[in-house]
From TrEMBL:
<dbReference type="GO" id="GO:0042773">
    <property type="term" value="P:ATP synthesis coupled electron transport"/>
</dbReference>
<dbReference type="GO" id="GO:0051539">
    <property type="term" value="F:4 iron, 4 sulfur cluster binding"/>
</dbReference>
<dbReference type="GO" id="GO:0008137">
    <property type="term" value="F:NADH dehydrogenase (ubiquinone) activity"/>
</dbReference>
<keyword id="KW-0520">NAD</keyword>
<comment type="similarity">
    <text>Belongs to the complex I 75 kDa subunit family.</text>
</comment>
<protein>
    <submittedName>
        <fullName>NADP-reducing hydrogenase subunit HndC</fullName>
        <ecNumber>1.12.1.3</ecNumber>
    </submittedName>
</protein>
<feature type="domain" description="4Fe-4S ferredoxin-type">
    <location>
        <begin position="182"/>
        <end position="211"/>
    </location>
</feature>
<dbReference type="InterPro" id="IPR017900">
    <property type="entry name" value="4Fe4S_Fe_S_CS"/>
</dbReference>
<dbReference type="InterPro" id="IPR009016">
    <property type="entry name" value="Fe_hydrogenase"/>
</dbReference>
<dbReference type="Pfam" id="PF02256">
    <property type="entry name" value="Fe_hyd_SSU"/>
</dbReference>
<dbReference type="InterPro" id="IPR019574">
    <property type="entry name" value="NADH_UbQ_OxRdtase_Gsu_4Fe4S-bd"/>
</dbReference>
<dbReference type="InterPro" id="IPR004108">
    <property type="entry name" value="Fe_hydrogenase_lsu_C"/>
</dbReference>
<dbReference type="GO" id="GO:0008901">
    <property type="term" value="F:ferredoxin hydrogenase activity"/>
</dbReference>
<keyword id="KW-0004">4Fe-4S</keyword>
<dbReference type="GO" id="GO:0051537">
    <property type="term" value="F:2 iron, 2 sulfur cluster binding"/>
</dbReference>
<dbReference type="InterPro" id="IPR036991">
    <property type="entry name" value="Fe_hydrogenase_ssu_sf"/>
</dbReference>
<dbReference type="Pfam" id="PF10588">
    <property type="entry name" value="NADH-G_4Fe-4S_3"/>
</dbReference>
């Protein structure tokens, strides 16, 4: 790789010729403020907050897009640079709402942080604060155009990372906005509700729909029995929302905090993740042996399910009919659990804590009522739970390690790894191999399906004479590549896992905001650490699931399990 030598603030450094000035500064540990820049998205140089002085240049330059060259001398901390940055931020603030104290992103807003960092103490300009109507008619996301700073991150995340292309710039000059096509609401366009736009938005212009007040009301209603399930990826991200290090494993403290908040029972979605493997694994074997539609594709990620319904309805028969772990749990909470503890299901309020904004839309689907009621009443993101814990004044790090409640709180390590891309596939292979061969695997760790490559492929021997060809994709842009291969008849896979978000649920749209792939990787590493430390590591060894089948469901794919745990997906018709 060709290197060039440059000097930044008196420090000499050799960097690749393809680097930008910002890249070089970051390599030296020099902090340059940015807003439109995001390390995982194409650079655009729109906001100009990252301006620096380059010797010989006619004006200050945007460091995020300015290329390095041999002998370049850069200064990031001159009076002119500081004044220019402050002016840019003041101009942004002149048109920005001043409701910071009531904004969902208060104390976690990049514009707010940069205003403090560059020393803004007054706003010298009179701007025009426009009042746009809220886009809040969908179950998952709220858009407030008045808080948009036109950084374009949501446009790039939706188009480059997800390949959905919901957002674009509209109008010109002071009237420029970021909107879906024809300025329609997200409920009217081909939005999958994955929340990656909210995950990269630097302000409160796109946030998850906040359901915390409804959950507080349920908790405070003495006539209601309020239960909660927690997804695998929440336990490795919640700590970040409460001041702990990235990737901290906080399972026991999370359970303790939920009990302190007032939930009557705290259960683990790992239980129904294990159940999903029993049902989905049995479905795969049934398709392999009885000539069903192949390849079969997982249906755990609701953003992905929305995508195939919207964009590839002709391929819906490839989806597994198994519900997601969230929805399986919800159906059992108001049937099996209600019967077991003698509570009228109308008095049960079922809450889930998810890393995903699309889970809110999934719970609201009209067909998700196989218990006779809405199976999951409320879905909170990891961020919402973090806010509830802070609101309750709970000192999270001082909480004791607490166990999940029985019977829906028993989960395996295979259930835990649902939280990382490739995890559903690996969990399924651990059990499907046992189902078809009758023998336990000597090695249950399938390294070939792990890792952050956008698309992974593997051939996995299940028994003598039977090898499963599998594929794993994360992000919807990569899902499209897989689907085009299926449509063209070029996909000779048996089983495919697709997750809508980068890294799978660990990078979900409802997780605490992150700014790098390394940050996400720490969560994924923690997921696999949870698996290694689990007493049970295979879904078919879960005694609580075995008891469920023995005493209530009968068998996988049986009449009762099919009614409660399976569904059929259908084309969505939007603009």
């Amino acid at each position: 790789m060709e290197m060039v030598n440059i000097t930044i603030d008196g420090q000499k450094v050799a960097v690749p010729k393809t680097s930008t000035v910002l890249d070089a500064a970051l390599s030296l540990g020099i902090k340059v403020p940015t807003l439109c820049y995001h390390p995982e998205l194409r650079v655009e140089g729109a906001c100009r907050v990252c301006m620096v002085e380059v010797e010989g240049a006619r004006t200050l330059v945007a460091s995020c897009v300015y290329p390095v060259n041999e002998g370049m001398v850069v200064r990031t901390n001159t009076a002119a640079v500081r004044e220019a940055r402050k002016t840019v931020v003041e101009l942004l603030l002149a048109n920005h709402p001043t409701d910071c104290l009531s904004c969902q992103r208060n104390l976690n807003c990049e514009l707010q942080t940069i205003a403090a960092d560059v020393g803004v103490r007054e706003i010298r300009f009179d701007g025009e604060k426009k009042n746009y109507p809220l886009d809040a008619k969908n179950p998952s996301l709220v858009r407030d155009q008045s808080k948009c700073i036109l950084c374009g991150r949501c446009i790039r995340a939706c188009s480059e990372r997800q390949g959905v292309h919901v957002y674009s710039f509209a109008n010109r000059g002071f009237n420029t906005t970021v909107v879906p096509a024809f300025d329609l609401g997200l409920d009217e366009v081909s939005c999958t509700y994955c929340g990656q736009c909210a995950a990269v938005c630097p302000t409160g212009a796109i946030v998850e729909k906040d359901d915390t007040e409804a959950v507080w009301a349920a908790i405070n209603d003495p006539s209601k029995h309020v239960i909660v399930q927690t997804a695998p990826a929440v336990r490795v991200a919640l700590g970040e929302a409460l001041g702990l290090a990235n990737g901290s494993i906080v399972t026991g403290k999370m359970v303790a905090s939920l009990k302190r908040l007032g939930f009557d029972k705290v259960f683990d979605t790992n239980f129904s993740a294990d159940l999903t493997i029993w049902e989905e694994g049995s479905e795969l074997i049934d398709r392999l042996t009885n000539g069903g539609k192949l390849p079969m594709i997982t249906s755990c990620s609701p953003g992905w399910v929305n995508y195939i319904e919207l964009k590839y309805p002709d391929l819906l028969d490839h989806l597994s009919t198994a519900k997601s772990p969230q929805q399986m749990f919800g159906a059992l909470a108001k049937t099996y659990y209600a019967e077991k503890v003698g509570i009228d299901p109308k008095d049960i309020v079922s809450v889930s804590i998810m890393p995903c904004t699309a889970k809110k839309a999934e719970a609201a689907r009209p067909e998700m009522n196989s218990s006779g009621y809405q199976d999951v009443d409320y879905v909170l993101t990891t961020r919402e739970l973090g806010r509830m814990i802070r609101e309750a004044g709970i000192t999270f790090n001082n909480l004791p390690e607490t166990e999940f409640d029985a019977p829906l709180g028993v989960g395996s390590g295979a259930g835990v790894i649902f939280g990382a891309t490739g995890g559903v596939m690996e969990a399924a292979l651990r059990t499907v191999a046992k189902m078809v061969s009758g023998k336990e695997l000597d090695n249950i760790e399938f390294e070939a399906v792990r890792g952050m490559n956008g698309i992974k492929e593997a051939a996995v021997p299940l028994k003598e004479g039977l090898t499963a060809k599998v594929a794993i994709a994360h992000t919807l842009a990569n899902a499209r590549v897989i689907l085009e291969k299926i449509r063209a008849g070029e996909a000779d896979y048996h089983f495919i896992e697709i997750m809508a978000c980068p890294g799978g649920c660990s990078g979900g749209g409802g997780q605490p905001i992150i700014t790098s792939a390394e940050h996400r990787q720490k969560r994924i590493d923690a997921i696999y650490e949870c698996d290694k430390c689990s007493e049970l590591r295979k879904s078919h060894d879960n005694p609580a699931v075995k008891e469920l089948y023995d005493t209530y469901l009968g068998k996988p794919l049986g009449e009762k399990s099919h009614h409660l745990l399976h569904t059929h997906y259908h084309p969505q018709k939007k603009c």
